[in-house]
Amino acid sequence: MNQTHDPALVSWVESAQGHPDFPIQNLPLGIFRRRNSGDPPGIGVAIGDQILSLAATRAILGIPRGPVGQACEEQSLNHVMALGRSHWSALRADVSALLASGSRASRPGTADRILVPMQEAELFVPARIRDYTDFYASVHHATNVGSMFRPDNPLLPNYKWIPIGYHGRASSLVVSGTTVRRPKGQLKAPEADQPVYAASGALDYEAELGCFVGPGNHLGEPVPLQSAEEHLFGVCLVNDWSARDIQTWEYQPLGPFLAKNFATTISPWVVTLEALEPFRVPAFKRAEGDPEPLPYLQTSDNQTRGGLDLQLEVYLSTARMRAHGIDPLRLSRATTVHLYWTLAQMLTHHTSNGCNLQPGDLFATGTVSGPTKDSRGCLLELTWRGREPLTLPGGETRSFLEDGDEVILRASCEQPGKVRIGLGECRGTVMPAVAS
Ligand code: CA
After folding, report:
1. Is 424 helix (H, G, I), strand (E, B) or coil?
2. Is 141 a catalytic residue?
């Protein structure tokens, strides 16, 4: 840890003090522009309820400096991500000093030229994401889902050896706030002779943690676990919308396809791995009798500090709840402490065959579920495939999502003696399927 993590650090941006997500100890990066301005998008740092424009601070104050300062004039974070950890750290130090009390940036005439109120900003997907991969790293999620389909044999024999994943679709990644259209697809009821093409009746969310890749690797050159963290730029929230009825019919033998690639929502702010440093914890403690990871997935450093103590919450707000002024209902709260594999292990495994990762690529953990019912990160698990519907305030029930439902993901890191930081929000509202 360094000066930027100091709990005593205070910003001249007043709303940063005590802000649940964006105090000066966080400094997440995103892509924004002033709404309706017609300006090109640029890189910003969330600080309290404001956004610091890095292009503006560079033009006015010459900061951030060096190659990473130049990369901050781009319209996506890819160039910053490509530079690597020492540059990310230099950027964080510059921005922290700039936003700390007493900085020359706080002077009248400067502050109002480099800050944009978040309320007046439009936010974008923070990088040009060329490839997106989704893992399946929560053993509780895998066990729950497996036991619905294979009660006698919930966890397949490979699970504890290999970080299971599949290649997702980058083109349908959307930023928080984008509406999501209910997909249509092939559905086959168990008793039916043949499938029909219709709107999904079992639309679900999956609450996940996403991770952006930094410099990446050349084709054919795996990233060893001891250097994997040099390629982990930072994290965001991911909602992997899933149509369970389409999934049930299509998933064998090649896995998810159209049940999941119609939309994936991500939060706009990328919280860097360096900002998460105070919340690092040991990797998941495997149960007695579980296999040790193979040597390429095992280092003592990963074992002692490869995990992350981050709480991920899911809220639901239906159209009726909003019309009646009812607050969103929290459906679940889980922690990434329970993930069976660390982010570093996922990245190393992804490259272990020589597959190349590129700056701005995104991978996600898979649904983050814990051991208890209130920590299940999707409706499939919470309602046990629809058999135990949830009752909502106002009397509505839900097995799966209805049109007009808004799903809100939030995440934060909080520990005694440390300043709480958060990831912000990842929101999406379900729109009706296209008419046939
Ligand atoms: Ca998923």
Report:
1. strand
2. yes
